[in-house]
Write a structure and sequence with these properties.
Keywords: Cell membrane, Membrane, Transmembrane, Transmembrane helix, Transport. It is found in: Cell membrane. This protein is mainly α and 423 residues long. The protein has one domain: MFS general substrate transporter like domains (Growth Hormone, Chain: A). Helix content is 81%, strand content 0%. Helix 4 packs antiparallel against helix 7. It is globular, with a radius of gyration of 20 Å.
């Protein structure tokens, strides 16, 4: 008699489809975050005030976060009514297409104010597509998971974050090592945006070969889907929406302070070479992957809410040392600070794929987790680099980590006061 196959082997295509899509999401978002820290300001805004260029660059970075909730409602609507698979394919195409087109934009020197206007348009398109990506990828994994494996399957999309970061950071590092500064500023920064097309095609190839989730099919057979999922969501689960938003704040705050803000600060204020600090972040990224893997395993043993509470508490503690460690200028201490922060991020990011779906009923689940994830992203992600830059200018780096302390407290409150799991 043949032994049953291992759950990971049995569902390899499902896990690959959720992993690849999220890897593309983080690759696309992080190549822009890296470009925003290094070249977007000087290339797309007037040169009269260099510090204003940095702030305006981070504002374009934050714009996509405000587009994400709009995309979450739109893609959530179709994800709950039509299905997870087709919605995921559409979101990936919009996200990838917007990213690739950024490679062809004219600079401010070429087109004047038209250049930042087009940049903002494509950033909105990128964020709109991203609004439906993570929620669908998580449901694809969790709603196909065997009993007792929900958190480990739910961690698969999260592992796309360090993978996408690895590709994005590694490519910028290679370009920095092989191209003169003038060539990188002239055309080299465009290469990562073009390369996004390869990952998008891979993601589409995997996703077009999968079927619909069992949970969605069962919900469709039990009752017609809600005509307006977001309306049903707000009527039936208002407390869960607020709890879900709060629950994701910490992971976004850590990621963008330890990546975007840290890169900008280290290369402008601390004097590190671009490629040197990219290598430091690349090494610290492996601690994020370790944290996510640990969180997935631990959450299946203790429950995702329990792990998320621990991660939120640790986030608040990391905030007390983050600014001092980053601002020390001592490279081993800077690396240890980033590695610690990203490992703790794994503990607040890894359980989300399993925790958020428990808050919402299946007919409105795509909309619910997408709105929670993306609105929380505005609070924790869009504001993080901008707020940290302002705090650093006023009170030095010691005050920067307080943003993490507050973010950890917000996430802890969201998990503690979350309604009981929806049936």
């Amino acid at each position: 008699m043949t032994a049953p196959s291992h759950p990971l082997r049995q569902n390899a295509r499902i896990l690959a489809a959720s992993l690849v899509g999220t890897a593309v999401e983080f690759y696309d978002f992080y190549i822009y975050a890296t470009a925003a820290a290094l070249v977007i300001g000087p290339l797309f805004f007037p040169a009269q005030a260099p510090e204003a260029q940095v702030l305006l660059s981070f504002m374009t970075f934050g714009l996509a976060f405000f587009a994400r909730p709009v995309g979450a409602i739109a893609f959530g609507h179709f994800g709950d009514r039509v299905g997870r698979k087709s919605t995921l394919v559409a979101s990936l195409m919009l996200m990838g297409g917007s990213t690739m087109l950024i490679a062809f934009l004219p600079t401010y020197a070429m087109a004047g104010p038209v250049a930042p206007a087009l940049l903002c348009l494509l950033r909105f398109g990128q964020g709109f597509g991203l609004g439906g990506e993570w929620g669908g990828a998580s449901l694809l994994a969790v709603e196909n998971a065997p009993t007792g494996w929900e958190a480990r399957f739910g961690a698969a999309p999260q592992l796309g974050a360090p993978l996408g970061f690895l590709f994005a950071n590694g490519l910028f590092l290679i370009l920095g090592l092989t191209l003169p500064e003038a060539a990188f500023a002239s055309w080299g920064w465009r290469v990562p945006f073009l390369a996004s097309a390869v990952l998008v095609l891979l993601g589409l190839w995997v996703r077009l070969k999968i079927g619909e989730t069992a949970a969605f099919r069962a919900a469709q057979e039990a009752a017609p889907p809600p005509k307006v999922p977001v309306g049903r969501l707000m009527a039936d689960h208002p407390g869960a929406v607020l709890a879900g938003i709060a629950g994701v704040v910490a992971c976004f705050a850590i990621f963008y302070l330890a990546t975007t803000f840290a890169l900008s600060f280290a290369t402008t204020k601390l004097g590190y070479a671009k490629q040197e600090f990219l290598a430091v972040q690349l090494a610290a990224n492996f601690f994020l992957a370790a944290g996510i893997a640990l969180a997935g395993w631990w959450a299946d043993k203790r429950g995702p809410a329990a792990v998320l509470r621990v991660g939120a508490g640790l986030t608040a503690l990391v905030g007390l040392v983050f600014g001092v460690g980053l601002g020390s200028g001592h490279l081993p201490l800077v690396f240890a600070t980033l590695a610690l922060a990203l490992f703790v991020m794994g503990l607040v990011y890894g359980p989300l794929g399993a925790w958020l779906p428990t808050l919402y009923a299946v007919p409105v689940r795509y909309t619910g987790i997408s709105i929670a994830f993306n609105v929380g992203g505005i609070i924790g992600g869009a504001l993080a680099p901008f707020a940290a830059q302002a705090l650093a200018q006023r009170g030095g780096t010691a005050s920067v980590g307080l943003f993490l302390t507050v973010a950890g407290a917000v996430t802890l409150a969201g998990v503690v006061f979350a309604p009981k799991p929806a049936r």
